[in-house]
Amino acid sequence: MLGSLYLQQDEGFDQGQGVSYSGGYRSVFMKKMKYRLLISLVLLMPALGLAGFDEAEEANRAGDRETAFMEYKLAALNGDIRAFGKLGGLYLHGVGTPKDPVMAYVWFGLSDLAGDRYAKGYQDAVAGIMTSAQFETAKERLAEYREKLGLSKKPEDQ
């Protein structure tokens, strides 16, 4: 199939040298390849976002906490809301990553915004163990991540 895109004439074919493209055929070939690549990327985008979460779950079940953390983070940064609370828990307990109450607060906050009914309780618990400086940093980071991920405030907060 691929050969039919550019081997439509013998002109430019030199045995032992491979195929050299003539101007018109090369541009047709490149346009078709760009179009196919674009279509492939559009069709694969949703699957790519889900793959990080599924791989994280698999790594977590296998006991590979570092890989699970990296995959949950990848999924979360790609907008997979299922990973938000899991990432918060990993940061809170230092599983697969060093303990970081600021980032735990951020991810539990994002999980709350995404509709997780338990996340606010965890976020409040994390806030109780932070210093005031950490709390201020956490609120700023939460706003940054909320904007980066396109999450708006919950209706009751507006």
Automatic annotation (TrEMBL):
Question: What Gene3D superfamilies does UniProt report for this protein, alphabetically?
Answer: Tetratricopeptide repeat domain
Which protein are we looking at?
Answer: Sel1 repeat family protein
* Source organism of the structure: Solemya velesiana gill symbiont
